[in-house]
Amino acid sequence: MKEQLILENQRLIYSICNRYPYEEKEDLFQVGVTGLLKAYQNYDEKWNTKFTTYAYPYILGEIRKYVRENKGIKISREIHKLSLEIDRYQLLFYQQTERFATPEELAIHFQKSELEIIQAMNSKNALQSADTPIVEDGKEMNLYDVTPSPKKQDIDELLDLKEALLKLEEEERQLICNRYYKDMSQTELSHIMGMSQVQISRKEQKVLKKLNHMLH
Predict the structure, then answer these.
(1) CB 40 within 8 A of CB 55
(2) pLDDT tens digits, residue range 132-174?
(3) d(C-alpha 38, C-alpha 197), whole Å
């Protein structure tokens, strides 16, 4: 049963692993399998949610934790913030399309250059600081030099999300904000909210489904 579960979902795990090109792929895969098995233990078909959608944050969370604990390079606050925003957007994008957004699609959505997007996506393993020299078109510069001027964001999308968050109960809103805006782990939240990690996980999936319903 375990082997079959892994076989059926290995494509999903590898697709997440591919976001960390500087890490050992098979090590990441094994960590992703841990997240997959945790998701399977907590999954309930009565929730009417696809297992791959439910398992995605478990797999990503385990891999991100592994990379974070094994990285020794300090990253810039701006790149780290963009990295977290990309992770949140990828979660919603995957729920809607069952695939991950490409760097080009992410660049359009965040109104950033593809170079910045790739740097942010790689920040979980080998990101340099914003002062580190890079080369573009034969010219040496740093990340600050290639940061585009602020442009208009997708106001309608932001307003819809804000409105949906305001409709959540206080505890639900606290959970989502801490998980996806403060990058807290389920274990950290279990101490803050007085619940077990399993309860946090189930409540998180319930709230995500509720948000998804509001936004569609």
Answers:
(1) yes
(2) 444 444 444 443 344 443 333 444 555 567 777 888 888 888 8
(3) 11
